[in-house]
Amino acid sequence: EAQVTQNPRYLITVTGKKLTVTCSQNMNHEYMSWYRQDPGLGLRQIYYSMNVEVTDKGDVPEGYKVSRKEKRNFPLILESPSPNQTSLYFCASSLFWGGGLEKLFFGSGTQLSVL
Amino acid sequence: DQQVKQNSPSLSVQEGRISILNCDYTNSMFDYFLWYKKYPAEGPTFLISISSIKDKNEDGRFTVFLNKSAKHLSLHIVPSQPGDSAVYFCAASTGNQFYFGTGTSLTVIP
Questions:
Q1: Quick check: A98 pLDDT over 70?
Q2: How far, in Å, CA of A86 to CA of A112, rounded?
């Protein structure tokens, strides 16, 4: 089954404790991206990657890191989480062709609480 | 600044009637537009899309309309069903990024 898998689904942590949210897709998609969803703000892009070893900042990259060492994986790293990073996070992937991006496929989400 | 806007946070419609969800955008470089549906505790799922070279696209009960001169996108659901109750996000793409609206929560009343 074609899917985007995120782990964990729920995470409670404390300020300053480094964490990683994993994301994996099995559709051989070139494009992967991370979003956060906050009330009244919709989905905002954190980082995206057009292919292996190619990453770019989205609209809200501060406090986050990503890496794309393999095509299928795109982990989101919070080196020193702060309470304002409490949010619902989504990983997504898409096929990228010469004319642009296809539709995004989303994971089920990771609810992060930073105390 | 929000490039894609959904000005109605919520909408209630009777079962069987038409639901119309609206979306406005500011960037004339957007060339691909999509609608996503989201249930609680799930990720958004793709619903329907439209290229900037078209002004209408239909898929069953769902129709998306694009008015490029007004920079306006709408989703029509006919007839509305209780299972359509969800949050709907519109999105627009420039080719290497997607921009999402803030979402409209649709409630279909049986």
A1: no
A2: 5
Q: Give the tokens for residue B19.
A: 């639901």
Chain segment A4-49, per-residue pLDDT in tens: 999 999 999 999 999 999 999 999 999 999 999 998 888 999 999 9
Q: What is the pLDDT of residues A99-114, one digit of tens each?
A: 667 789 999 999 999 9
Question: What's the one-letter identity of residue A57?
Answer: K
Q: In the predicted model, what is the mean pLDDT of residues A64-77?
A: 97
Contact A4 B93 (CB under 8 A): no
Partners of residue A43 in chain B, C-beta under 8 Å: 44, 89, 91, 100
In DSSP terms, which residues pair with B13 in a beta bridge?
B108
Distance between CA A65 and CA A55 in Å, rounded? 10
Torsion of CA A91, A95, A97, A99, to 10 degrees: -70
Q: In this structure, is the dihedral angle defined by the CA atoms of residues A108, A113, B2 and B7, taken in order, positive or negative?
A: positive
